[in-house]
Amino acid sequence: MQREAYSQPWEYRDVTDGTSRDPWPVVIPHDAVLAMARVPDAHQMASGYFPGGKWEYRTRIFAPAHWRDRHVVLEFEAIHRSAAVFVNGDLAIRQPSGSTSLVVELDAFLRYGVENEIVVEARADRDARWYTGGGIIRPVHLAVGPRVHVPLDGVVVTTPEHDAEASLVQIITTVRNLESVPVVRWLETSITSPSDDLVGVDRTRVSVPAGGEAEVSQRMLVEAPLRWSVDSPDLYRVTSRLTSGAGGEGQTDHGDVLFGVRSLHLDARRGLRVNGQPVKLRGACVHADNGVIGGATFDAAEERRVAILKSAGFNAIRSAHQPMSRAMLDACDRLGMLVMDELTDVWTRAKSPEDGSDVFLERWRSDLEAMVRKDRNHPCVIIYSIGNEIPEAATRSGSELTRALAAATRALDPTRYVTAAVNGALFVMDGAIDIDPERLGGASLDPVAEINARSMSLEDRMSSLALTDAVAELTEEAYGALDIAGMNYQDARYVLDHERYPHRVIVGSETFPTRIDRLWGLVLANPHVIGDFTWTGWDYLGEPGLGRMHYRDDQPGSGALGAYPFLISLAGDIDITGERRPASYYREIVFGLRAEPFIAVRRPHTRGREMKAAPWSWTDSIQSWTWPDAGTDPLEVEIYCDAAEVELFVAGSSLGRQPAGASHGYRALFAVPYAPGRLEAVALRDGLPAERAALQTAGTDRRLALRAKLSTPDTGGQRLAFVVVELVDDVGVRATDGDLEVEVDIDGPGELQGFGSARPETEESFSGSRHRLYDGRALAVVRPTGAGRIVVIASAPGLPSASVEVQAV
């Protein structure tokens, strides 16, 4: 059976307060939360102060008479959360999880020759530690096939043996028979190359029992295979044809699966190898929301995120903390990005009031199977994570559950590695386990009442606790059940663990972004440490203010993390509009991928103030030399550079040289009196000028400028146009000092899917057509509603309007 996008219209109603309202049409995927009014209620802080709700979606499917002899499936990739699906008034399925697919087999519910009503109920409220959105947040598919068919995700492709000369491709196909009598079919399986050449074909007879299944194994040799890797993401295609005749006549079912030829090897001496080549994971933890369009998972937005993350130097993504969408997996396959896919943030101990921990024991096997069935043909997926910071993993029952989850994952897919993101320090810091203080070796467990103080001391506390015998003992069995020890903020254990557990392979599954220079040095120096996943690669909604910078002179109470109207985490290398922040360029330099220096200027309000940063906080700096209100005191200018020295020039005059490079944390700090003009940094190698970077002050003649990029057709589902709106001067230099309110209008077959900026504190909505720029920038996401010319027009008070055209086909 083959998935097809479900294209029938949907109606939506908000039923949160039980009031009967008229439904209105919506496009799926749909985030029911994003348009809701935020509330300054501390109980809703984790979600970015968005309240919860209950929603109802309704659609109608006409079932023609010939469907009586067919098998009909409606698949929801994800409904957040606690979903119930009704068909013609009858309950068809429930799914507590908000990120696990629901496959509704409609045969028993359909009425033929008439329309059938599908009703979906969902709710979300305080069920995660971040913003999740709510409703039918991922795509819906309809599959109609014969009663003897290959079920969805019923083809598994592996490449168990391969080298430069040839690759053995093993294809295991499940054939399902819903008839009441045994049947005989013929299965023809072909392989085509990335250039669409036929490179293998096999045909075999299949006898399938009544009401049962048959599993068919076919093995074919592909000569001179093109191997999938992050640098060469070549994809082959398997096409399955099920026929009633031995000669291929009477086709009854067909389907396609993409796969890659690649091998994985892992050990503590040689680390991770892909196709025999050592690979260090330059990883980004990424939440599921997509900024100004919220939790709605459009294929085009997922592909854009992967492309931007890769351009910033990442080669791996950890899906935090829920299974990755099919669209993002497809994009990682096409673009060349490795994936650690994660099952959940909770097991049996709740972290949020309604997070599903109460049904975990009943649901984990089916949720795990759904994730693995989705992932197992994707060459990008190399690691499964069975949980994030699970406090009960240190207990006896938790250890048993860890082993059960790991064993079940391997049974479902023995070709990937299993990990869990474990934070041993939290086992004792959160009081999950009773600990004798003497076993902590002097590390403090004293409570920290004030949230800022807790944040500022968090790294030191975690490091000191990580080194204790207590944490080593509490994590020993959990790590022993895994293929890779996932360590959250436990880099202090990297070297120590290699001495105590010489066969243990470690990955920094979650790390502080401000320490990447030291962390990456540890990764490179230790073969058993295979990579680092920063928190976080892409900024996200919820956990508001996690990465906010604080200062010693903040007024008491004014610096509380997440105070309303904070909306955004502010911990990402890349902001919610897709723009790289200074931390991203710093990381690229540390990774050894960028030779040019980077200039970041701290905002004037930071001058002379002592920072007390949380370990997720970057300095409050931006890439700009436009500061008309700077005053007379010097500005602090950060230069990131891998060269031993860097020289800074203002208007052609040198301000001197300073050491940089690895021995100085890849940073130099200059005090620079502000004067409009050109600011230039020059890397010095062996004392000689080398690479350069410059900033130019924006002029006073300002205008709006729009840049649009329409997603490619092969992203599937609805296409999107991403329109960057900026305030610039007459030569195109961005004016970061002009945060005007901009209104966006659409002329032509398109609708505004979302519009907003990366401003961390705001009461503006992403669902409206007006939004203030932040540092002179905003992003509008436009969804074409048909073919034709779409004109996106932006206007602001006192400026001429600007426009950009998109041609949708």
From TrEMBL:
Residues 272-423 form the Glycoside hydrolase family 2 catalytic domain. InterPro entries: Beta-gal/glucu_dom_sf, DUF4982, Galactose-bd-like_sf, GH, GH2_Domain-Containing, Glyco_hydro2_dom5, Glyco_hydro_2, Glyco_hydro_2_cat. Residues 156-262 form the Glycoside hydrolase family 2 immunoglobulin-like beta-sandwich domain. Keywords: Glycosidase, Hydrolase. Residues 705-805 form the Glycoside hydrolase family domain. It is an enzyme of class 3 (hydrolase). Residues 634-687 form the DUF4982 domain. It comes from the Bacteria. Its EC number is 3.2.1.23. PANTHER family: BETA-GALACTOSIDASE, BETA-MANNOSIDASE. Belongs to the glycosyl hydrolase 2 family. This is Beta-galactosidase. It comes from Microbacterium murale.
